[in-house]
Amino acid sequence: MSVSFRQVERDEEVEALAHMAHHIWNEYWPALIGQAQTDYMVEKFQSLNAFRADIADNGYEYWFIMDDEGDTPRIIGYTGGRTESETNRFFISKIYLLEEHRGRGIAAAVTRFYEQLCRDRGLAAMYLTVNKQNKMAIRAYEKQGFITVDAVETDIGEGFVMDDFIMEKPLA
């Protein structure tokens, strides 16, 4: 599969990003964390207002993951994060794919994208958090050279907790 990345820049693209996030989260996460926590996390972290605040106030950048095969490229997922100058790393906040595109090696393309971005910015590493129950994602990240460096439980409010591994990939 030929994959490319298109930066989310215009407000209508941020709206499309939020719509896609709602769809992906509701097809994947209820089985792992329940519908109530899924709804809460979509509103808090994956909604139009959350994306707008991330971009405007927190230095986040987002990209659509594009399937370039066929006559017309199409959006199959999204990713995003931010440079952390204080740690000289890139925090990958989000990597999400539509269901029919999971398990097809796209994580490798996303990793290569971030490796190049980090090299271009002179960053020493990239890292992400992953739910401890998300075995498919953990395997994909390990296959791409990420190692687990910590485990954290984060209270996100309303009685919900994110129970994650922190995985990092140093860059040569």
UniProtKB/TrEMBL annotation:
Pfam families from the UniProt entry: Acetyltransf_1 (PF00583)
Top-level lineage group: Bacteria
UniProt-listed PANTHER family: N-ACETYLTRANSFERASE
Gene Ontology molecular function terms on file: acyltransferase activity, transferring groups other than amino-acyl groups
Protein keywords: Transferase
UniProt name for this protein: GNAT family N-acetyltransferase
Domain N-acetyltransferase: start-end pairs: 3-172
Keyword Transferase included in the entry's annotation: yes
UniProt-listed Gene3D superfamilies: 3.40.630.30
